[in-house]
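Here is the promised in-class demo. Please do not try to memorize the tokens; focus on the logic of going from shape to residues.
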């Protein structure tokens, strides 16, 4: 019976814990969390609360519990070096060490890595450490610009022309702010197309793809409103998406394999964990928006419930570097994940709905769905929301229409001042994605 430590406290880690718990090896699960997630705790023998920067505390807990390996959910502990700290204590992880995790923690590192190793996928880009030359480069970008700080921003730091600024002067003001804060800024060409997530298992050499998923970052239906950590996502039973061609996912996979090799060459350390590419399919092929060094949230909730391979065996093979010996398979079913959020989520603190953030929610009967807790607090009086996403509701069925119907039916049975995106996974939204790509590809 292996002892496994899950690090993280969100819905992503809830599905990770659930998937580990259904292993034939009946692992003893432990969790280190920033805040108490009752869904994760329900799968664990013991949990410990603390900061992800407390590497000593995490390592001491892992030692005390005789942990065989850790599974790291979020990016923060990866950036802080939790995998290196655990490795120094002789405990391996399904999650990359700090250096290869730069794939996510430094956007400049990743753009330069692809460039240095001649790997396709980068849009036109330049990195600036002063404002000199920024105006000239912005003028070269006919289709508009995207401005990114180098480091982690919780998915909310990317500034897109047309959404966050209108013209070269607006872009320059943003670049100046970022330069003042962090000393460097990434300016890229804005691309037109449809985004998709391709998460891949990687043991440092072998790269195995999971089903493709489409995430929805904007707060409101129709892709309106502020960017969030992700409002929901869907996947199809054929493990592709209807607006993609087979070449699109194949190209993203080939690039990811080359990046895994380049990372090893560059850092001398194999990447062990999940390489999650945020891609955009364009008229000219796929382009890389960014890599993450972990499962996506919400995307983990689309793929892990479909995993047929024993997850403990899979994590072991990644840790041991034997992934090529394992057959990794997913059920051929469709999934629709919708995040239930407090009505005030993503809105300014003085908005009338902001008060909804600390409210109680009541979860009703739900058939054919999986529920994953995100930011909820279990108190004597029941389940309370915080200011963040509360609950991931995942409909799973043979086709997307039924998966979406199940998710909606379950959300309809939730009581409290909550909101969600009704359009995620609907036929209408997907038809629009298909038309968009058809128009682009002529
Ligand atoms: N799906 C967005 C993220 O996990 O960063």
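The designed amino acids, position by position:
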């Amino acid at each position: 019976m292996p002892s496994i430590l899950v690090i993280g406290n969100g819905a992503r880690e809830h599905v990770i814990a659930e998937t580990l718990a259904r292993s034939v090896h009946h692992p003893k699960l432990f969790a280190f969390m920033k805040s108490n997630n009752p869904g994760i705790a329900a799968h664990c023998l013991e949990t410990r609360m603390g900061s992800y920067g407390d590497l000593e505390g995490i390592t001491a807990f892992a030692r005390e519990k005789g942990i065989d390996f850790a599974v790291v959910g979020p990016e923060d502990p990866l950036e802080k070096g939790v995998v290196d700290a655990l490795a120094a204590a002789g405990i391996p992880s399904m999650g990359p060490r700090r250096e290869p995790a730069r794939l996510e923690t430094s956007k400049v590192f990743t753009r330069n890595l692809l460039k240095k190793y001649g790997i396709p996928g980068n849009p036109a880009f330049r990195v600036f450490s002063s404002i000199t030359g920024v105006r000239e480069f912005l003028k070269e970008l006919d289709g508009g610009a995207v401005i990114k700080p180098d480091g982690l921003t919780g998915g909310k730091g990317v500034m897109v022309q047309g959404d966050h600024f209108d013209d070269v002067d607006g872009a320059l003001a943003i670049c100046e702010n970022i330069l003042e804060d962090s000393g460097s800024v990434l300016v890229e060409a804005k691309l037109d197309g449809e985004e998709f997530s391709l998460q891949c298992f990687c043991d440092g050499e072998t790269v195995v793809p999971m089903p493709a998923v489409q995430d929805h970052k904007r707060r409101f239906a129709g892709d309106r409103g502020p960017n969030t950590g992700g409002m929901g996502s869907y996947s199809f039973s054929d493990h592709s998406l209807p607006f993609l061609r087979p070449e699109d996912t194949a190209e993203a996979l080939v690039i990811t394999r080359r990046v895994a090799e380049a990372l090893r060459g560059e850092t001398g350390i194999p990447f062990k964990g999940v390489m999650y590419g945020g891609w955009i399919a364009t008229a000219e092929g796929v382009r890389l928006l960014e890599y993450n060094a972990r499962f996506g949230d919400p995307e983990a909730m689309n793929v892990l419930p479909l995993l047929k391979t024993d997850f403990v065996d899979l994590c072991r093979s990644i840790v041991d570097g034997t992934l090529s010996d394992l057959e990794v398979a997913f059920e051929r079913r469709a999934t629709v994940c919708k995040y239930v959020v407090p009505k005030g989520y993503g809105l300014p603190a003085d908005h009338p709905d902001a008060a909804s953030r600390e409210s109680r929610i009541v979860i009703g009967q739900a058939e054919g769905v999986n529920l994953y807790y995100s930011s909820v607090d279990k108190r004597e009086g029941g389940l309370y929301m915080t200011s963040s996403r509360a609950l991931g509701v995942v409909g799973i069925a043979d086709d997307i229409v039924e998966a979406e119907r199940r998710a909606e039916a379950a959300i309809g049975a939730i009581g409290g001042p909550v909101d969600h995106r009704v359009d995620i996974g609907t036929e209408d939204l997907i038809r629009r994605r298909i038309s968009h790509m058809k128009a682009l590809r002529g």
